[in-house]
Amino acid sequence: MPELAEVEYFRKQWNPGLNHRIEEVRIHPKARIFRGMNTTAFVRALTGAALEKSEARGKQMLFIAKKKSAKSRAWLGLHLGMTGKLRVERPDFQPAKHDHLILVQAKHLLVFEDPRLFGRVLFAEGIEPPAWWAKLPPDLLSHEFTLKALDIFLKRRARAPIKAVLLMQERFPGIGNWMADEILWRAAIHPKQPAGSLGEAQTKALYREIRWVCREALRIIGAKWDDPPDSWLFNHRWEKGGACPRTGAKLQHATIGGRTTCWSPARQKLH
DNA sequence: TCCTATGTTGTATG
DNA sequence: ACATACAACATAGG
């Protein structure tokens, strides 16, 4: 489910737990979301610590916790994979099958559920943010994501279809399958077009629509999970026999870059 | 039964 | 070393 805006929405679901102590940590230690980590140290570090703040960068989230009078902090990274969700429950809630991580507080349970287990938990202790957080690529709405940076990346991935390139988190953190399709539809670029073959005007349009879709998705979905208006491709891409909201022509589907892709052949032509 | 699903990663190949 | 493509991961629902 979660791309940029959905991740931001889920991050805020744990806001009721900020500035409150974690009394207990309940986990399914063998769940795949904990792969590669020391769950014993993880539970020990978080138990008794207070949640200070949280941040989201692309599809990654960071929760910071600190024990009273400790110098070092506990850095909890969460990735929601395909089906992860964060939610809050009352303290007497009985965990369900896919609730793999629960931070128990006096007034709330902070729950991470993930049926398909493609999500991931990261953890570190220390004074400085860990490398897996500090080294994330620049936000697409920051000044560091420039037209020039976009152009350089497209030319390095010259032969890959632009749809596949937009899914690369090292340059487009937070973009997922539906956002990539929405961006290409707005920029009138065919998803199969090789990234290195975009002309100057196309690259500019792509840059503009990347920023626009990120901003609007965060505003509409990230805040309250409202539905985008019907003028978006988003509302039509999964409809049976769906039509392009701008041309009225029938939408087309194919697997591109390993993912089901939707586009409007009337707007997005292969050059 | 078979196909699909808003994601990443390990591995093979060029 | 770098770029590209794709199976694999695990579960539920149509």
Give your account of this protein's structure.
The protein has 271 residues and is α+β, with helices and mostly antiparallel strands. It folds into 2 domains: 4-134, MutM-like, N-terminal (N-terminal domain of MutM-like DNA repair proteins, Alpha-Beta Barrel), CATH 3.20.190; 147-263, Orthogonal Bundle (Helicase, Ruva Protein, domain 3), CATH 1.10.8. It has helices at 4-13, 39-46, 131-134, 147-156, 162-166, 177-187, 200-224; strands at residues 24-27, 50-57, 60-66, 73-79, 85-89, 99-104, 109-113, 120-126, 252-256, 259-263. The strands form 3 sheets. It has a 4-stranded antiparallel sheet. The protein has a 4-stranded antiparallel sheet with strand order 2-3-4-8, covered by helices on one side. A two-stranded antiparallel ribbon has the order 9-10. A hairpin with a 4-residue loop joins strand 6 and strand 7. Helix 1 (4-13) runs parallel beside helix 7 and helix 6 (177-187) crosses helix 7. The chain starts with a helix and ends in an 8-residue tail after the last strand. The model has no long low-confidence stretch (mean pLDDT 97). The chain binds a DNA duplex (14 and 14 nucleotides) through helix 6.
> How far from one another are the termini?
32 Å
- Kindly report the name of the CATH homologous superfamily of the largest domain: MutM-like, N-terminal
| Average pLDDT number | 97
> Tally the helices: what do you get?
7
Strand content: 15-25%
Rounded to the nearest angstrom, the radius of gyration is: 20 Å
> What form results from the Cα inertia axes?
elongated
